Give the backbone structure.
Amino acid sequence: MWIVHNLLFTICIALRCVISAVGVIHVPGYVGSMVNIYCSYDAGYESYEKYLCKNNCGDSDVLVTTSNPVINKYSIHDDKTARIFTTTISDLHSADAGKYWCGVTRTGKDIYTEVKLKLLVGDSCCDTVTKVQSYEGYSESFSCPYESQYQNSLKYICRGNQPSTCLQQALITSDTKQNGRFRLDDDKVSGTFTVTINSLVKGDSGSYLCGVQRNSELDVFSAVELKVKEWCCVKSSQINGTVGHPLIFQCPYPPQHRYNRKFLCKGDHRNKCTDMVASQSRFTIEDNGSSSSFSVTITKIQADDTGTYWCGSDSQWSHGNYTRIQLSVVFQQHSGNGASTVETPAQISDAGQYVVYAVPAVLLVLICVLVLIVYKCKRQKIKGNEAVMNRNTSKTGGLEEVMGAAENGIYGNDEVVRYSEKQTSKSACNDYHDAGEDEPDYENCTQSEEIYCNEDFHKANRRFALRCVIGAVGGIHVTGYMGSEVTVSCSYGQGYESYEKYLCKNNCGNGDVLIKTSESRKNKYVIHDDKTARIFTTTIFDLHSVDAGKYWCGVSKFGKDIYTEVELKLMPDSCCDNMTKLESYEGYSESISCLYEFQYQNNLKYICRGNRRSTCRRQALITSHSRQHGRFRLDDDKISGKFTVTINSLTKSDSGSYLCGVQRNSDLDVFSAVELEVKEAVHYAAYAVVAVVLLICVLVIIYKYKCYNVRATEAVMSRNTPKADDVIDAEEGGIYGNQEFVVTFKQQSALNHFDDPGGDEPDYENVTTEELYCNENYHKAQRR
């Protein structure tokens, strides 16, 4: 018996008494990506330790706890206001799939919630890819079909083929029909949404994913491969004309364009082209359908007619359906012996030959000058280095010493040094990695600032700390919430797929590199490189106010790295200053009204528990894409700018904070806060039933009492009737001696009064005849 008890005790300890497990959470994810597991807990457990564990949840099975929030690839965060703790698992592998437990430590038996993690192998999509080809400057449309049950679901498109981050990196969604060059149109009847990209550039080439959101499961995707070709293969011709004379030339077109509108325009590029026939009467067009060409006539050519012309028959400027014409204008001059024509193009041709010979010579001279400048810079650097090293033995301000040297004239190029003295920013300095030579390579250093502004060099003759941030491209603005995580997505050009990528801060010295793709995870930073989409993503967890500021996305390469500036702005994760308070009772229904501005009519609306904005949309109880979800219903009144969420069959556990959210794709979502208090139901119905029962009881008692009185009266009357007859019979039979009295009494219907208090007769004052005859003793006494 004791053996059985010990066995049960051991099992209980190993499983941490998993007898209070509540519900099951199903979480889908992708191998190679990351996943978030959200677990809620009841009020009163805010200060208790939470954890995620696997298997039997023994001490060795605990993966991460709130007291130790980052362990290997696991991190945890407890939102005590929303009573939800979130565990993030990074760098997922197929072995990570299976059963987990969200645990809340307490005395005795812990509280558990079962989690089932399902992973799909390969975070890439799809087996079938639609290939689309277009040209620079054109517009191209993608058609993305979906099933009828997803008519009201969110649709979106993103670059790359990584489904796990597609929605976060969406170029446009069905909530916003237009976003820059992108437009999305949803045809719910045919079950197809179409994405149009205008003004294509070669950088638009690559993979795209069309996505349809499913709240309870992984989203549905279809893949598109877009190739944007250079706008090329132009039919060109060179034509000369004479000022003051007419000019006629031919423009061919395809036979199928016979009935198309023909045009002639002037401009260096087809996108900046002026229609000459419409703007000037000197230009006319005559179509010759039999030869599939049209003739252009210019009357009285002018000097400013020189330039590039485009003629064609396709308003869409389709590939190959146009001709480029280069018109050169010549001048005709008269001499004394007769007229002679001086052709300006011929003179230009001679000048061109001169340029052909002159340009190489000029370039050679410039190269020599450049080499001389570099040589002087290096010699200047050597002198400066010796002077700085000598001063560094007694002084620590290396940069100030260099400036002092400039004032003392120890540098030959005073102008360059003084220019450097004016420049105080370090962000323009370059890092030169020249492992094979004693001196750094100053190629691509355009200013002496890049030589003298680096204190590391001045102090110890080290290599420069910056990594040649002269290739910085554009800027990314990222906004996040303190205490949460944020994802920074950086794209790079074709050909750099195999190069190392990293995220750095400050001046991007070796000590400033936060994480690189060769590490995958470091402290609270995680990086992932999607080489197909040419986007590398860095996630920063457990954000604090000191994390705000400037970062750099870097791509390492020989010589100078490629940088993209990132500006990270952080905001408090809690919301809001103003809060609407509502009160209701168990079993009732309550509606929460959420206002929004007019421009967000077609945006996604949702509601979540708690006051944490960063995770609200992911933890939404219901969204505007699904009007009904369990006990929750959402109705959007776009005219009044208000959506209403109704919660049916309220319970006390529904009490707490809620956030109404409106999604904004280009900025943080908009929120309003509601505090709901659900009180215990007052059972008025029970009180009413008790009151009715009591009333019925009273009525029954009254009824029975009255019935009793009626029956008693009837019984008395039934007894009195024969006794009165007996008296009459006795009177008729003469049994009473006092006949006169009996007769008199018979005639009296009212009361009789006997004033003989001393006699044998009783006092009949105020006695009715009923009382008189019902007294049997009296009758019996009278019979004597």
